[in-house]
Amino acid sequence: MIDPIAEKRRKRRKVVGFGFTVLCVGATLLCALMLVVLVVSIVREGYAWLSWDFLNNFPSRHAEDVGIKTALLGSLWLTGLTALISLPVGVGAAIYLEEYASDNRWKKLVQVNIANLAGVPSIVYGILGLGLFVQWMAMGRSIIAGALTLSLVVLPIIILATQEALRGVPDSIRHGSYALGATRWQTVRLQVLPAAIPGIMTGIILAMSRAIGEAAPIVAVGGAAYVGFVPEGLKDQFTALPIQIYMLASEPKAELHEVAAAAIIVLLIVLVCMNALAVFLRYRFGKRIKW
Amino acid sequence: MATTDLIPEVNLTVPSKGMRRFGERVVHVALFLCASISILTTIGIVVVLLLEAIQFFLDVSVIEFLTDSKWTPLMDPQHFGIAPLFCGTLLVAFGSAVVAIPVGLGTAICLSEYAKPWFREIMKPVLEVLAGIPSVVYGYFAIVFISPWVRTIFPSAGVFNALNACIVVGVMTMPMVISLSEDALRAVPRSLREGAYALGATKYDVTTQVVVPAAMSGIVASFLLAISRAIGETMAVTLAAGGTPNATINPLESIQTMTAYIVAVSKGDTPAGTLEYRTIFAVGLTLFISTMLMNLLAQWVLSRVREKYE
Fold this sequence. Notes:
The complex is a heterodimer. Chain A is mainly alpha-helical. Helices cover 77% and strands 0% of the residues of chain A. Chain B is an all-alpha fold. Chain B has 12 helices and no strands. In chain B, helix 1 (17-59) crosses helix 12 (275-309), helix 3 (83-114) runs parallel beside helix 6 and helix 9 packs antiparallel against helix 12 (275-309). In chain B, 47% of the residues are buried. At the A-B interface, helix 1, helix 3, helix 4, helix 5 and helix 6 of A face helix 1, helix 3, helix 4, helix 5 and helix 6 of B.
């Protein structure tokens, strides 16, 4: 015999449970859909404007003449310099925290500080760059000021990723090295770092792709909209791909929006390539080391 | 030292002992300096913001800054009330939370509790890509695609409106809500779930009454971090919401957030040392404090859960 009230309750629970599942799965599919819509609509809008001239022309107010040569080269300069500045410092800081610092208050302070820096909005770094590098150090609105600012933005990312990679190296490797008479730096340089390289590389590439896409801090530091020459030195004025996209998108003309979409496609292709490189490196070097 | 011969590429015997000691010291100090740069960055941010902001507050009283209801530093008559900018930021932060939290939590629950492994393997990279798309691209998407769509539904809305910004920032912060909430949900011990099943609970009961409550502090922390991220979000908001400081809670109007103001003023050639230039730092300080408070609150919430499980 079935109790009708219990039966009714059981059915209701089933319906509620099913409804909840549908909602959750729906939310997930919505996320995936969003990515598809984003990519498809941008590609549809912009692909017609992609051409060799587009990559090779200087900026312009006329949609048909717009090119992103200076922006591409500016981004290349910025990212290259940012890597040069932030890599040694970031990896060095991570090695210090993981391999050298003893567990005292200072280490804890630095660690908490890095976590907090990772949460500081990038525009605040832009203000720091404007106040510190552009004005006080009198670098002006130059590439080097932009690169230093971007370095500060990506530094926490590099440090955290490198620390993670170093932590993944088992202690037995270190002990073995010490047992053979190696000093601390020899252990780090010859054993720990090579073993942690895949993880570090992945983190670095992710940090650099952040640097390439970041617009807010370099707009604040003074990336210009229309730079009619190719940058040749650290003190030159600069523009960058995200700045160019921002400027084109804030114009009211629909044609310029399409050009902006083309520039976005270029930016996204660069980002996809970098991420593919990260995956490749992780796979390639990750396989060689086994313990 | 016969052992070293076994490892040919590691020539440990070449430098003298004294040199080696010295080299070790140099490396140690150099690495220490690298680590201190992070502390110097924080000090730099605080000092730069404070120094310029203090000079700003010598000209404009703190009371005017906090209570005046208008923000028109570039026009005559000048007003320096942070309220409209702060209100704009709050509106976007709140609106984006309304978008990101339900969808984000739903997705996190789906991935952690319901999804098969293969589905999770597909969704993880999708979310990583969503999180990796630059802010300015989202901004473009907001004006070119979301804005016309919003205006079809609400014909009274302008091209630039706060709702655009709320939706797009909601999408941007979603991956963060999802990945942090999912981590929290998956950290709930299996035994709790099994205990509930043993008592006759359905999957829905287990999820909503056992797993989610147990992971609550992690979930709340993810919400707080997402809101903090929305407060600091710059390019997407600048492009989507327009540039009118406007103390309103109507999402169909054009607004300006603190971040958008900073971009608008710093991209022009405002000469250093002027009052207009210093407004950037006063607004920046307010922004820095707001996000810092949210982050600290999130860390505090998270630290409470660790105590509970360990």
